Amino acid sequence: MKALTYNEFGGNDRFEITDREMPHIGPDTLVVRVVAAGLNPVDYKVREGYLQGLLDVQLPAVPGWDVAGVVEKVGLDTPEFQVGDPVLAYARADVVSGGSVAEYMAVPVRTATRKPEGLEFTAAAAIPLTGLTALQAIERSAVGEGSTVLIHGAAGGVGSFGVQLARLRGARVIGTASERNHDYLRELGAEPVVYGDGLADRVREIAAEGVDVVLDFAGGSSLDSTNDLLREGGVVTSIADPRAASEFGGNYIWVRPDASQLAELARLAADGSLRVEVAETFPLDDAAAAYARLEEGHTRGKIVVTV
């Protein structure tokens, strides 16, 4: 099969399209014929070697954890699925080796759910990592009816889902973003504010009593204004800054595969309750260029490789 691979850690120039053996199928594994693969910044951070202390990588490796496709083979103990089922998955395995930017992928059954009718494969592939990250952050923070939530990085891949999911739970959402993304955030249901110096004052202008929840999907200095904005008993959750836990007593999280949560996200996207922003698609042969575009850091919405 054809796949995007890298044989040593480093930059985008390490990528090449190669022929690889078909993935091995275990007893609780599906072999999925990939139709679309969603790209995430963590993919190239792994390739650059930044996460070697956290994740084991077996070289040569294929990047990608987000996948949408069709079941080609089923393992010995996978009664949930049959050959021909359309599926999507956040298919993160214990060892980074055989990813989704390929013609076929081995998918742990615990990570997969059926793709609903009405949800296109490209949109399905754009959901898993970012959608699950947002949903798990919201659940860990107990966002609900009447909550006032401040989301840092609200126009990004995770933030866009976070805004919508918080609004679906009845929360008021204030989102930080550059001014060019403010109309987009309004469309999603958030009240936009510009990030940077003076953020606390700008938030207080529209939420004088502060906020119940801070969701940090941006990192950097985002949490610097937290003491000025968080109400007593409020919750801070971050995917990028350990201070959320060490300084504010909240949650510092790493997204986990969860098939039932992914099914919920897919259902919401299929019925139109959750907007999935696909910025651009690339064919497999141009997958290295797709990652180069992602690494520029200026894309709103997900980049998807189609196979």
Automatic annotation (TrEMBL):
Q: Which InterPro entries match?
A: ADH-like_N, Chloroplast_QOR, ER, GroES-like_sf, NAD(P)-bd_dom_sf
Q: Which GO terms describe its molecular function?
A: oxidoreductase activity
- Protein's UniProt keywords contain Oxidoreductase: yes
Do you know which SMART domains this protein is assigned to? PKS_ER
For this protein, the record's CDD domains field holds:
MDR_like_2 (cd05289)
Quick check: keyword DNA repair in the entry?
A: no
EC class name:
oxidoreductase
List residues of the Enoyl reductase (ER) domain. Answer: 10-305
Keyword entries, A-Z = Oxidoreductase
**What Enzyme Commission number(s) appear in the record?**
1.-.-.-
Question: What is the name attached to this protein's record?
Answer: NADP-dependent oxidoreductase
Question: What species is given as this protein's source?
Answer: Microbacterium plantarum
Its taxonomic placement starts with: Bacteria, Bacillati, Actinomycetota, Actinomycetes, Micrococcales
